[in-house]
Amino acid sequence: MAKNAIALSRIEAVAPDQSALGAARKLLVDGKWPQLERDAEHRFLWGACQGSGATPYRVVVEIADLGAKCSCPSRKFPCKHSLALMWWFAERPDRFAEGAVPDWVNEWHGRRRHTGGEDKGASSGGPPKSARAAVAEANAEEAAPRDPEAAARQRERNRAARELSIAQGLDELDVWIDDQIDRGLGTFGARAAEQCRLLARRLVDAKAGGLANRLDHLPTVYFRTPEARRHDVLLEQLGALHLLARAYRQQSQLGEALVSDVRGGVGWTLTREELLTGSGTLRRHRARWTVLATRRELQPDSLMRFETFLAAPDSSEVRMAMLLDFAPAAMAASAGPGLVAGTELDAELAYYPSATPLRAIVAAQHASQIAAQAPAPTDDLKAAIDRYDALIAVNPWISDWPIAFRDARIELSQDGQCWAVDRDGACGVPLAGEHAQVLLDLDDVALYGTFDGRELTPLAANSALGPFWSSHA
């Protein structure tokens, strides 16, 4: 390893959350960094990162403990620009020119309260702080006003600045959608990746990371769809983006729960601490959860997305939950939630606020064991689809939603498509994904899957042959 190289695991350790890592990865573009330098002793990295404004942000990192400072207004420490500067050095140290340490870097370093030998907890015999906690505390203390009222005013200014930036990003999105319609949907495929990536970068600069992720994923959705249905799906996706932008501008007319979905869809996030201290009857639920399936997918921003689906019996229905985790692709082998399909957990989950709660985190786990089977669904296929339609009416931005139904059989149609049909054959849904053929010819099946309004991708099943669990490597 090169002198004082930065391991990607260290960067992940100091990142405030996975969304900051994702935003940082999108900044690893040559044109974003007109300046990248280091000193001869490899103590500091500094550079300039071009944001949405005319003046680039000034960024500095102290290599020893990854303390960082950036001139951007972000409330996250380290911010995405600081993380990106570290990431550049981890992957391409040759891009950093050697130079004399600028005065502004020396001034920042002189003001820093270091976290090494001066740590009070260590000198007094108390428990040592983790590197992440120590660096975060040092950065926050250096950057935040000491007066609580001044700190609150600064947070409000930062929030207002972000709202203004997002509003400008929404205006750009509106123009982009109009352009796609004017040019004709038939031309979208020829330049899908380039056009979506360009707008996604602008939305990242506008601090609308949720919208940027949707744009990045749009070409994948488009090309995965059978050609005969691509234009319909593209029109639906563009309509959902337009509706999300409009809803964000009219939040005062929405219910509190749906506002959470809208703001989350645009890019506002909650920390684990904020989630665990929230209130509400749907926010926390303890049960014996069965891990139905795990999935992983490499995103266009080079982050690995991990999804874990769980289910638990709950009075007259089955309660569902999804855990969502992200990790840089280079760390994917050792990252992820660590839960295995077919496991039963005695755990308390905390749900993210939503009009249709699904995403959650594990607030507390008490015990685990091998599951005998998935919880028995109470709905038949028609009732499960009706329940999905009712959720869409409440939250039009849900997609690939988990549903469960009983009394189904899996059969092959004349065109070679696998279908799940109910007992009398009056209702059916086509199956997608690599696991569909595994279930073929099973009868009296209790089936779990993610449904996009057209196809069902199996997650788990109970049958006379035993349980089926899906795990995507």
Set out the fold topology.
Layout: H1 8-14, H2 18-25, E1 35-38, E2 44-49, E3 57-62, E4 67-70, H3 80-91, E5 97-98, H4 103-111, H5 120-123, H6 131-143, H7 148-183, H8 192-205, H9 209-224, H10 230-249, H11 256-266, H12 272-276, E6 284-298, E7 303-314, E8 317-328, E9 343-351, E10 359-370, H13 381-394, E11 401-412, E12 418-422, E13 428-430, E14 445-451, E15 456-463, E16 466-471
Parallel strand pairs: 1-5, 6-16, 8-10
Antiparallel strand pairs: 1-2, 2-3, 3-4, 6-7, 6-9, 7-8, 9-10, 11-12, 11-14, 12-13, 14-15, 15-16
Q: What does this entry look like structurally?
A:
With 473 residues, the chain is of the alpha+beta class. It folds into four domains: 8-143, no CATH class; 150-266, no CATH class; 272-370, Beta Barrel (OB fold (Dihydrolipoamide Acetyltransferase, E2P)); 383-471. The protein contains 13 helices and 16 strands. It has helices at residues 8-14, 18-25, 80-91, 103-111, 120-123, 131-143, 148-183, 192-205, 209-224, 230-249, 256-266, 272-276, 381-394, and strands at residues 35-38, 44-49, 57-62, 67-70, 97-98, 284-298, 303-314, 317-328, 343-351, 359-370, 401-412, 418-422, 428-430, 445-451, 456-463, 466-471. The strands form two sheets. It has a five-stranded mixed sheet, with helices on both faces. Strands 6-7-8-10-9 form a five-stranded mixed beta barrel. Strand 15 (456-463) and strand 16 (466-471) form a beta hairpin. Helix 2 (18-25) packs across helix 3 and helix 9 runs antiparallel to helix 10. The longest helix has 36 residues, at 148-183. The protein is globular and about 80 Å long.
